[in-house]
From TrEMBL:
It catalyses: [protein]-peptidylproline (omega=180) = [protein]-peptidylproline (omega=0). GO terms for molecular function: peptidyl-prolyl cis-trans isomerase activity. Pfam families: Rotamase (PF00639). This is peptidylprolyl isomerase. It comes from Candidatus Methylopumilus turicensis. Keywords: Isomerase, Rotamase, Signal. InterPro entries: PPIase_dom_sf (IPR046357), PPIase_PpiC (IPR000297), PrsA_foldase (IPR050245), Trigger_fact/SurA_dom_sf (IPR027304). Its EC number is 5.2.1.8. Residues 128-218 form the PpiC domain. Belongs to the PpiC/parvulin rotamase family.
Amino acid sequence: MMSLALLSQNAFAAPKATVESAATVNDVAIPSALIERSVSLNVQQGKKDTPELRQLIKEEFINREVLAQQAAKLGLDKTPEGQAAFAELKRNFMVDLFLADYDKRHPISDSALKVEYDRQIAAIGEQAYEYRLSHIVTKTEADARVLMAKIKKGESFAKVAKEGSIDPSAKESGALGWLLPNQIVPAVANVVVNLTEGSMSAAPIETAGGWQIVRLEEKRQFKAPKFDDVIPQLRAGLLQQQRIEAIKKLRESAKVTSNM
């Protein structure tokens, strides 16, 4: 069976009499429009529109319809668990519909993007530096000090990070890549800006995510990216801010009662 990830959206088949179907399962139609939509989504993600891709997608929809019909036959959609899952699916679907409609009705203008770009560049400053960091995160200060002792005795920072850090970056030996100070947790940033290349923090640093040991690999003067190169990131950031404001206003006008 093809990976379910190929189909980006849940879909429900419609009666054969009302749609052009790509296939039917026990007289229930699988609309051709669903196949076309899924093909389009896959093409947007970099796949090629081929007969093989279309066949895989159709087979996946058939498999889903077979499973859906069997679930209905067993009455699984009528159980409390099934009803709760349906309610959550509908809620998520309605949220996605609202956000898509809100974004469409409130597009981000080119002028807003430029204002945001200028604001971010001004906030960074002309003489800012960026830092290539590695870190180790532990649950307790004691754990962090044990790992620091290993490093001081000669074990490489990368090895200790890979074996002892609880952060996902452990897979990359603790490497975080290049960061600006305003992209770093303040407690850590205050230490990083005073480190020399190749050195690590003198003591574990307490943060909300755990106790951190930080090593400065390199630092360089920050070179601001060109406006055109960061438009997608700027747009995504402004859309997120816009959505947060919309949600805030809706919450303020809603009657919310907490029972816990």
